[in-house]
Amino acid sequence: MAEGQELKDKSRLRYPINGFQALVVTALLVGLGVSAGLPLGMLTEMLLPLAWVATLTAFIFSLLLYLKALMAPASALAPGGNSGNPLYDFFLGRELNPRFGSFDCKYFCELRPGLIGWVLINLALLVQEAELRGSPSVAMWLVNGFQLLYVGDALWHEEAVLTTMDITHDGFGFMLAFGDLAWVPFTYSLQAQFLLHHPQPLELPTASVICLVNAVGYYIFRGANSQKNTFRKNPSDPRVAGLETISTATGRQLLVSGWWGMVRHPNYLGDLIMALAWSLPCGVSHLLPYFYLLYFTALLVHREARDEQQCLQKYGLAWHEYCRRVPYRIVPYIY
Ligand SMILES: NC(=O)C1=CN([C@@H]2O[C@H](COP(=O)(O)OP(=O)(O)OC[C@H]3O[C@@H](n4cnc5c(N)ncnc54)[C@H](OP(=O)(O)O)[C@@H]3O)[C@@H](O)[C@H]2O)C=CC1
Ligand SMILES: CC(C)CCC[C@@H](C)[C@H]1CC=C2C3=C(CC[C@@]21C)[C@@]1(C)CC[C@H](O)C[C@@H]1CC3
C-alpha cells in the first residue's frame, strides 16, 4: 500500500501497489487459456467492435461518475471540473478521486485495463501473424518487446503515478476514462496492427540500430524519472545527494543538475525517443505507424505547458530561476 499526496482536507488516500502482479496474473491466465485452445489470434478480428464497446463503457462509466459527483462534498471536487457547465464538467471530470469503498476508479483505470489491454492486443497480433505467415516477423517481435518493456516498467513503478497531475489535479471524466479504456489499448497498438497487414522485412543491422534507439530512450526516460522520484522521497539518498538544487518558498527543492539540469522535462525526451523506436520497425512508406509519435509529441508539448503553469503557481520566483538556469523544455538547444 502507498499513500497519495495530501488532499484539500489534509487527508491522504491509500492505494494498493500491485499493478505488476496484475500483469503477471493476466499473463498466466492468458497462457493457461492458450494452452487450453483459446484462439488468441481471433482477437485481432474483433478490434473495431471491442473499441466501440470500450468507448461506450467509458461513456456510461463517466456519466455515472458525473451523477455520483453531484452528491460529493466541495472538498472532493477537482479544481478544473467544477465550472458549473455540465458538458464541460462531464468531459473533464467533476470529482478528483471517485471511489466505491476503497476501490479508486481513476487510479485503477489509469494503468491497468488500458496498459495490460494494449500488450494483450499486441500479443494477439503476434500470434495471428505467426498463424498467417509461419512465424512472427522481426519487426513484430521488436514492437511487442519494446512496448512490453514500457508497460512492465509503468506497472513496476506504479507508485510514481500517484504524483502525476492526472491523479493529483485532474478529475475523472469522459476524457480520461476514454483515454484509459479505449484510446490507449486500441491506438497505442497501431504499429503492431499495421505490421499484421503490411509485413516489413528487417535486416539484423537495422534491427540492432532500432534496439539501440529504444535503449537510449529508455535509459533517459527511466534515469530521469527515477532520479526525480528518489529525490522527492529522500533528498539525502546518496544517489541524488550530490546534485545541485534550488530552494523554493514551499520548503521543497528543485534539481538543477543531473537529468533535470539538461532540460526541464528529460523524461518526455526519453519517452519521445522510444516512441520513434516503436515506429521505425514499420518502415517509412506509411504515415499510420507514426501516428503515435505525432499525437504523443502534441500531448507532451501541451502537458509540459500545463505542468509549467502549475509549477509557476507552486514555486513562483524559484521556478523563474530554474527556467533561467535550464532554458530548454524537452529537446536540448531546440525546444
Ligand atoms: N505514454 C503516454 O501516453 C504518456 C506518458 N507519460 C509519461 O509519464 C511520466 C510522468 O509524466 P508527468 O506526469 O507528465 O510529469 P513528470 O513526471 O514530468 O512530473 C512533473 C513534476 O515534477 C516535478 N519537477 C519538475 N521539475 C523538477 C525539478 N527540476 N526537480 C524536482 N522536481 C521537479 C514537479 O512536481 P513537484 O515539484 O510537485 O514534485 C512537476 O510538477 C513521464 O515519463 C511521461 O513521459 C505522460 C503522459 C502520457
Ligand atoms: C483521449 C485523449 C486524446 C488523451 C488521453 C490521455 C491519456 C491517454 C494519457 C494521460 C496520461 C497518461 C499516462 C500514461 C498513459 C496515457 C495516459 C493515461 C502512463 C500510464 C503511460 C506509462 C508511463 O510510465 C506513465 C504514464 C502516466 C500518464
TrEMBL record:
Primary location: membrane
GO molecular function terms attached to this record: Delta14-sterol reductase activity
Gene Ontology annotations for the cellular component aspect, listed alphabetically: endoplasmic reticulum membrane; nuclear inner membrane
Transmembrane residue ranges: 20-40, 46-67, 172-190, 202-221, 241-260, 272-296
EC annotation from Swiss-Prot or TrEMBL: 1.3.1.70
EC class name: oxidoreductase
Topological category with respect to the lipid bilayer: Multi-pass membrane protein
Subcellular location: Endomembrane system; Endoplasmic reticulum membrane; Microsome membrane
Pathway the protein takes part in: Steroid biosynthesis; cholesterol biosynthesis
Function text: Catalyzes the reduction of the C14-unsaturated bond of lanosterol, as part of the metabolic pathway leading to cholesterol biosynthesis.
Family designation: Belongs to the ERG4/ERG24 family.
The protein's name in its UniProt record: Delta(14)-sterol reductase TM7SF2
Organism: Myotis davidii
